[in-house]
Write a structure and sequence with these properties.
Elements (H helix, E strand, L loop, with lengths): L1 H4 L3 H25 L20 H17 L3 H20 L6 H4 L2 H16 L6 H9 L2 H4 L12
Length: 154
């Protein structure tokens, strides 16, 4: 089964990245601009500019979510975003109760782990990262035959 699914892995990771990035950016847009129902707990409003930590979290969500969505600087953006969600969980939600179901921190915990996975997998297919890395490598490195490359176990 793995042999049949492995060729699709970069595309599955790319689609996963796009969905996670879009959802994360939507949270930031809602908090900053009042769209999509507005910021949580504001009845359709926004967070006040410059307030800690809400406004900064929303900026991270919008910018990093957009970068992850586009697949541009995915690993760095996902690491920053994952860290912000860990901070949100442990400072805002976890003091209320131990489990995410009890303290309302499900989305923070899920975003934290979903984005952390992207730190290790990269952008997958369909990301802008791939366009820039292909152009920056020398042509000889791109076309080097497999026979010249050292085996993994060597």
């Amino acid at each position: 089964m793995s042999a049949r699914l492995d060729p699709a892995r970069p595309y599955a990771i790319g689609l996963y990245r796009i969905v996670v990035g879009l959802l994360f950016a939507c949270h930031g847009a809602a908090s900053l601009f009042g769209v999509l129902g507005g910021a949580s707990g504001t009845d359709g409003g926004t967070v006040d500019a410059g307030t800690w930590p809400g406004w900064y979290a929303a900026v991270i969500q919008l910018l990093c979510g957009g970068l992850v969505l586009l697949g541009l600087g995915t690993r760095a953006a996902a690491l920053l975003a994952s860290g912000s969600m860990a901070y949100a969980y442990f400072t805002v939600h976890q003091p209320g109760a131990l489990w995410p179901m009890e303290n309302g921190g499900e989305s923070s915990a899920l975003f934290c782990w979903a984005l952390l996975l992207l730190v290790f997998t990269g952008s997958g297919a369909l990301g802008l990262d791939r366009l820039f890395t292909r152009r920056s490598r020398p042509a000889t490195e791109r076309r080097e035959p497999a026979a010249r490359k050292a085996p993994v176990g060597a």
